[in-house]
Design goal:
Layout: E1 4-7, H1 9-13, H2 22-33, E2 37-40, H3 46-56, E3 62-64, E4 69-72, E5 77-81, H4 86-99, E6 103-106, E7 111-114, H5 118-127, H6 132-147, E8 151-154, H7 157-163, E9 170-173, H8 177-184, E10 192-197, E11 200-204, H9 210-221, E12 228-232, H10 238-241, E13 246-250, H11 255-258, E14 263-265, H12 272-299
Length: about 300
């Protein structure tokens, strides 16, 4: 029996305008009322995940920072984390500076970027300004980042990290994964490079990805991975899709991601996550009927 439902945020739960559709919100509430654990596994750090956490109201801890931490939003405690070592983080920042690549660094609940990289953060949302949906996305993004996200723009990331007393959870780099691994050289053996899209990656501590975070979460809850359903849309969701009891991709996922899924539901634009939840609720109800009949017969 499936007990825990784990959803990616962007491109899975959220629609293309960065909103949580009402149908999905209602389905999440129904899942909670039917006894499922409901939570998120996201590449976002905690401050950026906060507005979605408030809307989803997970009843299980959240996997954040692309699998590098497990966080209880009710107690606001970090239950587990796997940061990049300080020495590796400093060497990595130095190498990325040498390469001249655009990158940022995530702590538990903040993003640090160099002054010359800050414009790159805004480029993705700007590229969406082609239609009404893109405009709504940009307005939501701007509002969320101004209200929730802890963004620190510094003159030099390497120097900042040298004195920063917070754990470094991951780097995000706007370069293809193969290029990153090739150019990092021996340093690539000290980290995990997890593609997010064909043009960007997260760099994590060795062996850390979303799948790792979901496994840790399931262990903390006393649930085997065969009782976990995961749903995602991007390349950094592959690690959790490959480990879950039931792997689900939304219809807007790339073909490579869909091929790793046991089920493919409609896209985020068609409330695929809601349809998945209702299907699981029906399955659970059907499986409960024979057990109820057996108990009734025993009573007779």
């Amino acid at each position: 029996m499936y007990r825990l439902l784990v959803f990616d945020i962007d491109g899975t739960l959220l629609s293309d305008d960065r909103s949580l559709p009402q149908a999905v919100a209602h389905a999440l509430a129904a899942a909670r009322s039917h006894g499922f654990g409901v939570t998120l596994a996201t590449g976002r750090e905690l401050s950026e995940a906060e507005p979605v956490i408030r809307q989803v109201r997970p009843n299980a801890p959240v996997v954040g920072c692309n699998g590098a931490l497990v966080y209880d939003p009710n107690t606001r405690r970090i239950l587990w984390e796997a940061p990049i070592s300080r020495g590796t983080a400093l060497r990595l920042a130095g190498r990325l500076d040498e390469l001249g690549w655009h990158y940022g660094v995530c702590g538990r609940d903040r993003i640090v970027v160099g002054r010359r990289h800050a414009w790159r953060l805004r480029l993705g949302p700007w590229r969406r300004l082609r239609n009404w949906t893109g405009l709504v996305y940009y307005v939501r993004w701007l509002w969320e980042w101004r209200r929730y996200v802890n963004l620190e723009v510094v003159p030099d990331v390497s120097r900042f990290l040298d004195t920063w007393d917070e754990p470094v959870m991951n780097f995000f780099v706007w370069e293809p994964a193969e290029s990153v691994v090739r150019h990092l050289g021996p340093l690539a053996k000290e980290v995990s490079v997890d593609p997010v899209s064909p043009r960007s990656v997260h760099i994590m501590a060795p062996g850390v990805d979303k799948g790792t975070g979901v496994e840790v979460l399931a262990g903390l809850l006393g649930i085997g991975m065969d009782g976990v359903v995961v749903c995602g849309d991007q390349y950094n969701d592959l690690s959790m899709l490959r480990r879950a009891g039931l792997a689900v991709a939304v219809g807007n996922a790339p073909p490579e991601v869909q091929r790793q899924a046991a089920w493919v539901v409609p896209s985020n634009r068609e409330n695929g996550a809601a349809l998945l939840i209702h299907r699981l609720i029906r399955m659970t109800a059907r499986s409960a009927e024979p057990a109820a009949a057996d108990r009734s017969g025993a009573a007779d």
